[in-house]
Write a structure and sequence with these properties.
By secondary structure, the chain is an all-alpha fold. Helix content is about 90%, strand content about 0%. The protein starts with a helix and ends in a 5-residue tail after the last helix. The model has no long low-confidence stretch (mean pLDDT about 95).
């Protein structure tokens, strides 16, 4: 293999690696955005459950104290 052939092969490998890294970066960004969206939704759901638990706790406390619900 001549020096020029080796150099051409290295260029091709470099281009392939660059394209692979670009694809990997895009896929990673997409996954990160999906995870971020899911974690935000999880946070909202947890806050809603906390509010429900607080309401039930107040209701139970009220009932235990002899009040009407």
């Amino acid at each position: 293999m001549t020096f020029e052939e080796s150099l051409e092969r290295l260029k091709e490998r470099h281009e392939a690696l660059t394209m692979s890294m670009e694809l990997f970066t895009r896929e990673t960004q997409d996954r990160f955005e999906k995870l971020l969206t899911a974690s935000r939704q999880d946070g909202e759901n947890i806050r809603a459950l906390v509010r429900i638990a607080e309401i039930h706790e107040r209701r139970l406390t009220h009932l235990e104290d002899g009040g009407d619900a």
